[in-house]
Known about the structure:
Helix content is 14%, strand content 43%. The protein is mainly beta.
Amino acid sequence: MPRALESLLRPLTGRWLLALALAGCTLGCRDEAAPPIRIVLGPAAQDEVTLVPKAALAELIEISPTESELQLTFSSVERGCDTPVTSSPDSVSLAVRLRLPGGAKLDPGRYPVADPTPTTEANPVADKPHALASVRLHGHRSELRPGGDLELHQVDATPQGTVDGLLKLDYAGDAEHAATRVSGRFSAHFCRINRLR
Length: 197
């Protein structure tokens, strides 16, 4: 290549490479936004919110040799496993507990949302794997009534692992209780795994 042409192209090539590097960093360095979770706790506008989690945490705790529990916490404020859930009126959080009694393993699958009361004829699911959920909104904690399910698509129950799935918590409502719904995809990182052995 003639020296004159090379001297003309060198600044353009440098600028082009710089532009490519900046574009690559913009695409590659961008934080992956957590999937939003839609929460509806009643018919009023203040009962609805879209939670974009700043913290999405998973904890696996073995309660006994035959029972374990997966705890999922999604919060609108940054927090860790050992940080208590804030009760600020502006914060929103969702807690989902997957109870795994009878030696059930934490595996991908679909788990119904059950009533938190003990096993009865009206609540036969309590002795099988099931989920329980609660929402903190406007400084008030609400236990979700049974309905819908928690779907786990991928589970990597190791330190630095994740659990991915879908929330489809849906209560149709009745004469005494308003309909509620919690829906959305999620990905939570394991911050604690407590095994008995």
